What we know:
Blueprint: H1 6-11, H2 16-24, H3 30-38, H4 42-58, H5 69-79, H6 86-93
Amino acid sequence: MVAAQADDLLSSEENVALREQAQAWIKCSADQWLPVFEALNDEQLLSLAGFYIKAEMSLAGFESGADNPAIAVFRYLKDQGRLPGKDVIRALKAQTSNRYIPYGKVML
């Protein structure tokens, strides 16, 4: 799973198939992600969000803007009342130039 191998996927040339699958998942809607989110704990969710934030900045083909899966993670955590502290969100936001991180477009 991407959440468990996030750092390895960013730095390693191995796991190309998993990285390609993670790239394809960018096209999934928040509703499609929901069963995945429900199966993960908060640490895994933040790892998943961190992967997509970092991947967008460092891997070709992961440019996703307002469709970055990290946004769906943060919205899910917010809806569950489980948002991480502001310091965690600021640290993740500092790693990207994507203006939509962490919550996406203002109006949906």
